[in-house]
Amino acid sequence: MFRLTGYTTIAAVAVLAAAVWAQQQKTPAAEIAAVFADVNGKVLDMAKDFPADKYGYKLRPEMRPFGAVIVHIASGNVFAAKAGRGEKVKWDELDPANYKTKEQAVALLEKSIADATATLKSRPAESFHKSVEPWMSVVEHAGEHYGLLVAYYRANGIVPPASRK
Question: What is the tens place of the pLDDT at every residue in 41-56?
Answer without folding.
Answer: 999 999 999 999 999 9
